[in-house]
Amino acid sequence: MAGSIDDITPEEWQQVWEKQRRKDMGLNDPLCGTVTITDYDPVNSPSHYNTGSIECIEAMEATLTPDEFKGYLRGAAFKYVWRCNYKGKTKQDIDKAIWYLNKLKDVLDD
Q1: Spatial separation of the C-alpha atoms in residues 44 and 100, rounded to whole Å
Q2: DSSP codes joined into one string, 33-92
Q3: Looking at CB atoms within 10 Å, which of 22, 67, 69, 103 has the fewest?
Q4: What tens digit of pLDDT does each residue of 91-110 get?
């Protein structure tokens, strides 16, 4: 695998996801078959942010106050825009920033 979590390919995430899913399901027997991801989506539902049935963003929203969560969303959007030209995945990072801004829009009170 690559040296940075941001550089891991969809195929590598597939391998990690399959290994974890097999472990979660108790499928340690190699004869049980393979669990596959049909639609890898690194923007809207990256597999590395999901453990079991809850995504990291859902856990954060549940533990933070509404104002803290809004601040987190603003910061995450800012981060992706800030570094979009330096990772080699400019469009993906802009899509991620937009995802966080849309999530922020969804949780606003006004």
Answers
A1: 10
A2: -----SS-BTTTB-GGGEETTEEHHHHHHHHS-HHHHHHHHHHHHHHHHHHTTTSS-HHH
A3: 67
A4: 999 999 999 999 999 999 87
Q: Provide the whole-model pTM.
A: 0.55
Handedness of CA 11, 84, 51, 45 (dihedral sign): negative
- Contact partners, residue 7, CB within 8 Å, separation at least 6: none
Domain residue ranges of the chain, discontinuous segments joined by +? 1-40, 55-110
For the record, the structure tokens of 22 come out as: 């097999």
The better pLDDT of the pair 18, 28 is held by: 18
How remote is the C-alpha of 56 from its chain's centroid?
A: 8
Residue count (the chain): 110
Residue 51 has pLDDT above 60, yes or no: no
Amino acid (1-letter code) at residue 85: N
Is residue 75 over pLDDT 70? yes
Q: Name the β-bridge partners of 50.
A: 55
